[in-house]
Design a protein that fits this description.
The protein is an all-alpha fold. The chain has a single domain, classed as Transmembrane di-heme cytochromes, Chain C (Fumarate Reductase Cytochrome B subunit, Up-down Bundle). 69% of the residues lie in helices and 0% in strands. Helix 2 packs antiparallel against helix 9 and helix 4 (79-101) packs across helix 5 (112-138). The termini are far apart.
Length: 225
């Protein structure tokens, strides 16, 4: 099958990939700006006891634990889960990149090496997303802490990644439309879902580091931060 002739795309697809997609991005940015403003307006937590440790070192440690799985007990016990976490989030980043690069550089995106890279990342995203959904449904302890939003997000993210595998070669306009429809939907939905946890992450890690650093609990002796 030949690759898509860009000029042959229907007007609805072109509007979706440009005006609607970027409009949804603007909406998401504004929604996050409001959320961050609300967070910053809240009074900062403070300790009333004498400091027993190094605040700055502990804050750096709190941020760096994301890239130091050996420092977290659950990740040491389940290294495959950590690899799954990394692969899943890299696939999401690839999905975002594909959505914004393709309309501007569609000819370059047709190169076989580029297609192979994105299909691989989308495949990883689909497999890890689907396995997470199965685990959340199949395990009693996971069902106990799951909300409808958890299932909905994982299902649609897995579907988005699958559509990416099929859209990446840029040979089928229908799959390209499906991919961008899901991507645009997520830009609007994410600020109201649990996926928006990454906006909270920098704040959480800062205060976790500052709190435990104040008490001298961590970083561990010998940890380089």
């Amino acid at each position: 099958m030949e690759t898509i002739a860009w000029d042959s795309l229907g007007p609805i697809t072109k509007i979706l990939m440009n005006q609607l997609h970027y409009g949804a991005l603007l909406f998401m940015i504004l929604a996050y700006a409001v959320k961050i403003k609300q967070l910053l307006a809240k009074p900062a937590a403070s300790e009333g006891t004498p400091s027993r440790g190094d605040h700055d070192k502990a804050i750096r440690y709190a941020y760096l634990t994301l890239a130091m799985p050996w420092e977290i007990e659950s990740q040491k016990q389940h290294p495959v889960r950590y690899l799954e976490f990394v692969g899943f989030h890299l696939a999401m980043a690839a999905g975002i990149g594909f959505a914004f690069i393709t309309p501007m550089a569609h000819e370059a995106m047709k190169h076989p090496a580029v297609v192979a890279v994105f299909q691989t990342m989308f495949g990883i995203g689909f497999v890890t997303g689907f396995s997470r959904l199965v685990r959340r449904v199949g395990k009693t302890e996971m069902r106990a802490i799951s909300s409808p939003d958890d299932y909905f997000c994982l299902f649609l993210l897995a579907a988005w990644m699958l559509s990416g595998v099929l859209a990446a070669p840029l040979k089928d306009a229908n799959w390209l439309f499906a991919y961008f429809a899901l991507a645009t939907f997520f830009l609007v939905y994410v600020p109201f879902s649990k996926i928006s946890h990454y906006v909270m992450w920098p704040f959480i890690r800062y205060y976790v580091g500052k709190h435990f650093g104040h008490r001298g609990v961590f970083p561990k002796k010998g940890t380089i931060v």
